[in-house]
Amino acid sequence: MALSRLTVFLAWLVIGVAALAPARAQTLMIGGKNFTEQYLVAEITAQFLRAKGYMVGTRTGFATTGIRREQEAGLIDIYWEYTGTSLLAFNNITAKLGPQDAYHRVKELDARKGLVWLSPSRIDNSYALAMRKDDAARKGISSISDLATKARQGDRFKLVCNLEFYLRPDGLMPLQREYGFEFGDENVIRTGTDTVYDVLRDAPYIDVGLVFTTDGRIIAYDFLVLRDDRGFFPSYLLAPVVRQRTLDKHPDLARDLEALAAKLDNATMARLNAMIDLEKKPVGAVASFFLQASGLN
User: Fold this and answer.
1) Which distant-in-sequence residues (6+ apart) come within 8 Å of 81 by Cβ?
2) How crowded is the C-beta side of 221, counted as CA atoms within 13 Å?
3) Whole-prediction pTM
4) Which end of the chain is more exposed for a tag (fewer CB within 10 A), N or C?
5) What single string gives the DSSP state of each residue in 226-250?
6) Do 131 and 208 meet the contact criterion of CB atoms below 8 Å apart?
C-alpha cells in the first residue's frame, strides 16, 4: 500500500515539474519562403534561437500565400515577411505609403488576425526590373518609364520573372497598367526565382529580368536596376512576424528576435546572399558566419 502511494506521489511530482518547465521547452516552428534570402533568415533565426535555449524546427520552401496560410493555421510560429507583401497581397491596401507608415499599417491590420509584427530590420528588399548594363546603355534605358516609352513606340522586350510575380497584386499586370505598356504574354518567360539571374545574364534573347534588390548577383552580373520613377513598388521592410499565442508562451521571444533584426541591413544581406548564390557556400555555414561576425553567437 505504501509503495502504491509512493508511486502515485512520484507520478504527480513528474506532472508538476512538467507543468512548471519553462515555455522554451516547447518547439518553435520557423518558416521560410522558396528563395535564398528566406532560406537564410530562417536558418539564422533557428541557429540564433537554439543558442538561446529554445527548441526549434524549420519548414521552408513555401510560396508567399502558402506560408501565410500555414502561420494563420498555427503550423508556423515565426517567419520573416516584407511589409509591401502584407500590405498588398494579404490586406489589399493599394494606397502609396512610406516605409514607416506601411509598417504601422500592416502591424495594425495583421494584429487583428493574431499575428504580431516585431520591430523591422533595416532590410528593404524591393522587387525591381533589371537589364544588362550594356544593353540598357545602348537602348537609352535607365528607368521603367524609359522601357515603357520604347515599348509603346514599337520595341519588343522579353521579360523573365518568377510565377508569383506574374500573379501578384504588386506584380506584372498592375505594373504594366501603372506605366502604360505591355510586354505581351508571348514575351514573358516564367521560371524559378533563383533561375532568373542566370537567364538574364546568359540568354541574349532576354532583355529584362525581375530581381530582388538585396541579391548579390545584381552587382556580380553587371545588371542595371531600372529606376521605379513612378513609385509603383511599395516599401518591403523585412521583419519577424510571430503568432500572438506564441509570444504569450515565450515572454522573451520578442526581445530576442528584435535584437536579431537590428543586425540586418541591405548591404549585409546582399553580401550573405552572394556567399550562397555566387560562392556556393551552404546556407547553414553562412548563417553561422553571420551570427559569429555580428556578435550574436
Assistant:
1) 68, 117, 238, 239, 241
2) 24
3) 0.87
4) N
5) PB-TT--S---BEEEEEEHHHHHH-
6) yes
